Amino acid sequence: MTTTPFGVETAHRTSAAAARATDLSKVYGEGETQVIALDSVSVEFRQAEYTAIMGPSGSGKSTLMHCMAGLDTISSGSARIGDVELTTLKDKKLTQLRRDKIGFIFQAFNLLPTLNALENITLPMDIAGRKADAAWLDKVVATVGLAGRLKHRPNQLSGGQQQRVAVARALAGQPEIIFADEPTGNLDSRSGAEVLGFLRNSVREMGQTIVMVTHDPVAASYADRVVFLADGRIVDDLRNPTADSVLDRMKRFDAKGRTS
Ligand SMILES: Nc1ncnc2c1ncn2[C@@H]1O[C@H](COP(=O)(O)OP(=O)(O)O)[C@@H](O)[C@H]1O
Ligand SMILES: [Mg+2]
């Protein structure tokens, strides 16, 4: 059992890998138009840990998330969720795994406008024919601070509230891992801080595992660890980041000419 700087006991925190890439390469196109988006990337995302992925635009951040989440095929190497090797799965099994074990949060909230907040949150489970665990759902809704807004449709909610609905939707099914690609990219700084604080709490209090792409050193400072990508390779790995230490790292990459 460890005590975090926030004084929270985290007995659920283990060193098991929720996801792991080993020598993962992803090549788009052929011949002259070939792009090596990921170049033999090896990285492990531990359970109940919050990891930020940073790097210049085009460095492979989204590709890494998509490959690890089974949304894109890989060219070589290995991508695992828990003990499951994604490359061995046929389409149907892969769809099931994505549905049951993986949550996504995208920059565009992707909420259905005709459904209210609660209906949007439970939609993936409704599609899967699964019943939401009521106690868990209550906890998620209370933690995102949406208890009074469940009957509202997306156009009746602020951007921050809409993104919190999207976060709650990802958490509701208790996935083994959540991938978030710039989840605060469309939010003002106050709404962004709300969402980031909530994501961090879900890691601390619920043992959720989160991997989040961001451009923002302040957003990255909410994470336990920052992995830096450049030209499809991992170039640095920083623990217990602060906005200043992240900014410092980014400046050093810029100095080497790796600008976005
Ligand atoms: N579907 C695709 N077809 C061809 N090239 C792609 C595709 N998706 C991404 N790329 C290329 O792969 C590289 C990495 O892209 P991406 O992972 O989106 O970077 P990031 O998210 O870090 O900005 C870029 O050079 C991009 O142009
Ligand atoms: Mg991207």
TrEMBL record:
Q: Which SMART domains match?
A: AAA
What CDD domains would the database entry show?
ABC_MJ0796_LolCDE_FtsE
Q: Which GO terms describe its molecular function?
A: ATP binding; ATP hydrolysis activity; transmembrane transporter activity
Give the highest taxon in the source lineage: Bacteria
How is this protein named in the record?
Answer: ABC transporter related protein
Which family is annotated? Belongs to the ABC transporter superfamily.
Residues spanning the signal sequence? none
Species whose genome carries this gene: Streptomyces violaceusniger (strain Tu 4113)
Cite the ABC transporter domain residue spans from the record. 19-256
Could you list this entry's UniProt keywords, alphabetically sorted. Answer: ATP-binding, Nucleotide-binding, Transport
State if Nucleotide-binding is listed as a keyword.
yes
Record's GO cellular component terms: membrane protein complex
Q: Which InterPro entries match?
A: AAA+_ATPase (IPR003593), ABC_transporter-like_ATP-bd (IPR003439), ABC_transporter-like_CS (IPR017871), MacB-like_ATP-bd (IPR017911), P-loop_NTPase (IPR027417)
